[in-house]
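Researcher: First entry.
Model:
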Amino acid sequence: MTDLPTADAVIANIAAFERELAAATSVRDAQSVRDRFLGRKNSVVASWMQLVATAPREDKKTIGRFANELKQAIETRWTAYVEHANATARPAGAVDVTLPGRAPLLGRRHPLTIVRARMEEIFTRMGFTVVEGPEAEDEWHCFDALNMPQEHPARDMQDTLYLSTPFPSFEPGGRARTMLRTHTSSIQIRYMQTHEPPIRIIAPGRVYRRDDLDLTHSPAFGQVEGLAVGEGISLADLKGTLLAFAQQMFSPTTRVRFRPSFFPYTEPSAEIDLSCWQCDGKGCAMCKKTGWIELGGCGMVHPAVFEAVGYDAEKYTGFAWGIGVERIAILRYQVEDIRLFYENDLRFLEQFPY
């Protein structure tokens, strides 16, 4: 309801305008206050002006005077407000130091990088040294020295990615064909050629095979292979090493079992199985109700490999293993599609800890 056009009503409306203008938190809010008192339609001043047309003749002059007094008072106060706002306004692009800070966008390590670093950390604490080597290899280091006969299927073009450029240097008696390495065992051969036992090394790196990219396969993937050579090394040392690794990587209650297998560069050879840490070996969806999860391959180094690098196979024994980095990441983070690791989708990558 509009206040009656009296002297007291003028004072009351001026006070109300000043109070609401002081409470405005933005220029838009202040403009709304001004329009409510001084707008052309439905404002206090406009309603008083309309009373002039319908009021008795003897009251028109009084009502008009009060309406003009209210209008002038509000205009004066509004002008002062606008001038003060313009004088104190921040320049365009200025920083409001009173605003709360914005958290910077931080990069994260890729989950495969996290897993590889964790594997290296565990094995280096056991005394292993991290060794790297070339991704382009010759047949001698990749196959011949590892006791792979000429008819071995790994040499087939369907499995190995051969290169057209000859390798600049290769072992005498070997073949000149070059390839992208199919495993990091070639690093072990190169290391043994230049170092005498005892040795303990791990050889992490990317390897390449002629696989189609699907849920569980990739033509390029990470691998960590290990090698220990010395006097009196046994299969029990191999199992103890892998058990210690599994318990630190997955769960302190993890158990390890070996299943007989065949690899040309180890004898005896075995597949590594881990007890399922989600069901403790009782059987669940993750382990396909078997209670065990396959991890990789391992075995005792074949004497033919020692002969190729000039080690005395009668004096030294050793063990070796190979574990895929993606395999560990899939198990550790319960990822069902290996392709997610290569697609650089931030919604996926931001889920992993540093």
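Researcher: Second entry.
Model:
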Amino acid sequence: MAPQVGSPRPALRYPRSFLGLLVIGLLLVALPLAAALLYSAWSTQHLAEQSRSAVYNAAQAARASRTLVNRIASLERLSLQMAVVPDADLLDDFVQLHDGFQQITAELGRLPLDARQLAALDRTVARERLLHELMTGSVGTRPDVAQVRSRVVELAESAHEVLAISARVADQEVERLRASAEHVQTQLLSLVMVAIAVALIAALALTRAVAGPMAQLDAAIRQLGGPDFSQPVRVGGPQDLRDLGKRLDWLRQRLAELEAQKNRFLRHLSHELKTPLASLREGAELLNDQVAGPLAPPQRAVVGIMRDNSIKLQQLIEDLLDYQRALHAASSLDVSTVRLDALVREVADAHRLSALSKAQRIELDLAPVVVDADVEKLRSIVDNLLGNAVKFTPACGTITVRAEERDGGAAIEVIDSGPGVPEVERDSVFESFFRGRAKAGGRVEGSGLGLAIAREYVEAHGGRIALQSQGPGGHFCVTIPRRPQAAVLGEPQ
């Protein structure tokens, strides 16, 4: 049993509307990218805060170091003065400088210092404490000058270490910022790659979710454009697309009903016309054979006219039915690989007997050409063009048939030495039932459907049929692509 057109995929659960499916898909695609963008904004803000903190710490370290060096210089100067001239006022100034020194060292201690910097700061604090104890240990007495100078020299050496602290703090902050920036950059690159991968996966999933119902709709429309309406239309996906599939299935049923009504009408028309026509032809044949008695010459002429016209009427009815079948068959193609030169030669051989009866010559100029086409429709095109040429070419005339590659496709030309098509009839020659005006040699009989059928089949292949203006006789040119376009294989045009 053939699979149903557009059978749904039950594994996928769709939202109720196609718009909802698109919105969900777009959110899934945009979510990882938005997350990456938000994280990059947060990381940039965090890095900016770190930068501000680093600048603040470096500035604090530089200010505190300079202040501490100034305090050490003042302590050195007061200590040497007190060693020479003990004075209570100098001692009060020394105590105030000591208190300021303690505050500044406490500020430096709160900065992000490493172990080496903390050790240098601790040594400076310890040496200042020893100097303080020496200067305040014996109130009212003069301290030992040599001991004071020794403590002052040690504290001065610490001043250089304190100055180095600010430079090292700035270097540390710069290094910390650099490491943080590299870390953030690595994280952002990783996050962007992951976000892009997730967005691509979501986009592929959305494409699959959308492409499934779209492919089912495409298959359903292709089916409605073809001659077979037996398979039901089923479309999955969101509810609105499933509803659309139901409407397409309703349309399929209506088309199937109309097709059945048309075929039934044609069958009835054929039967209703052929039955009395058969009786009319039989009666004409009996009269012509003089079964009912001998006929006078005028009576035989009337019977001959009746007989000939009944045959023409039957042929017209059959041509009409053939044309309806041709229009129906033109809606679909059964494509296969065709050797065009071999097909033209085969059709020409079938017409040689008719051409010989009129002493006509059929000349073939065929290049090897291979196309993908419906072989029966292509055969009908060549057959109608050759039959038309044989009809309109006078006795002892010439019919030339050419086949060649042209513009990536194939071209067939049928040229005859007949009277050609008058200018006023060129626009109507491919219309149904058009047979043209009487020629000098008498009216050429026919239904006027051959070129119309040929045009339908050529256009079904995505090609073009045209009547060329050069030359005295008829010159028809058919061009078809090497392979029919997608639009003519059942898609709406």
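Model: Note on the second entry: The longest helix spans residues 145-225.
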